[in-house]
Amino acid sequence: MSTNLLLEKQLCFRLYSLNKLMCRLYAPILKDLDLTYPQYLAMLVLWQNMKGISVKDLGNQLDLDSGTLSPLLKRMEARGLLIRVRQSSDERVVIIKLTKEGKALKQSAEHIPGEMFAVTGLTPEKLFSLNQDLDQLMANING
Amino acid sequence: MSTNLLLEKQLCFRLYSLNKLMCRLYAPILKDLDLTYPQYLAMLVLWQNMKGISVKDLGNQLDLDSGTLSPLLKRMEARGLLIRVRQSSDERVVIIKLTKEGKALKQSAEHIPGEMFAVTGLTPEKLFSLNQDLDQLMANING
DNA sequence: TGAAATTTAATTGCGCACAACTCATTTTTT
DNA sequence: AAAAAATGAGTTGTGCGCAATTAAATTTCA
């Protein structure tokens, strides 16, 4: 009478719990920047695309669809972090461009990765191999 | 001019993406049982506590507070999976008990863990060590 | 004993995440 | 060129996840 339906055995539950834990760790730090966790992830992409990026390409990098991104970007626009511009060569495409304020916020965020790395209590090598394992898992699943 | 603010470097983004990916993998399978992913996680705990469990203890195991659990359990009660009973020895406590239907659903879920394991493309040893690494990370963070 | 503090669950409000759908624009096909 | 298909973004509705608050019951302790 054995079962595999045990919470402690589930990889999925560990990912679920750790993701929530990460959100909670970031929340107080991001509050100083007036950003939510998903907004911070979006800013990481936008800081790498200072010339602008389409909603579609942003969604591909974040693995999010327009149903999530549209209202999220609307809120970020309302906070003055970015603007939306229709692409004249293809009117369907909306380009997201950071404002001065959005670009400037990068400086205030530079300390975050180091701070979070410290919290993980991992060696750089261990972090690297864990990242690799997770990438492998993702690749297997998306196979 | 190097920065650590790169999405691809972030452990947190991998956990965020993999968790969403897991949800999407489970969704179609759980749809057959008319369960959402968080409801499935709750059922895992309830199937291990057939005599009943308090909302507080359930929340401790799932790492969820009553703000999330109360409406979730309400929906599951409406679906006929469980009932809520006030504990007579301490009227603050609400005990969650599975109905016959809730208990019976376990049989229909027995195939899920094996199916999901196959999708990960991991060896049993690799899965075990990944689970260990994630447990270690969680322990480090929770200090 | 009686007031204060604690505990437990529920409620409210907000921001994702996503399915399903709409709408406008562009591309493909015939 | 006209019809059909595909594409990109937005809207609607549902279900979490969590902070903040409320309300009731219990425990603490002055």
Automatic annotation (TrEMBL), chains A, B:
Q: Which InterPro entries does the UniProt record give?
A: HTH_MarR-typ, MarR/SlyA-like, Transc_reg_Sar_Rot_HTH, WH-like_DNA-bd_sf, WH_DNA-bd_sf
- The name on file for this protein is Transcriptional regulator, MarR family
Q: What is the lineage of its organism?
A: Bacteria, Pseudomonadati, Pseudomonadota, Gammaproteobacteria, Alteromonadales
Cite the GO molecular-function annotations of the record. DNA binding; DNA-binding transcription factor activity
Q: Which Pfam families match?
A: Staph_reg_Sar_Rot
Q: Superkingdom of the source?
A: Bacteria
The UniProt record lists the HTH marR-type domain at 8-139
Subcellular localization, per the record?
Cytoplasm
Predominant subcellular localization, coarse grouping: cytoplasm
Query: Which Gene Ontology biological process is one annotated for this entry?
Result: response to stress
Arranged from A to Z, the UniProt key words for this protein are: Cytoplasm, DNA-binding, Transcription, Transcription regulation
The record's GO CC annotations read: cytoplasm
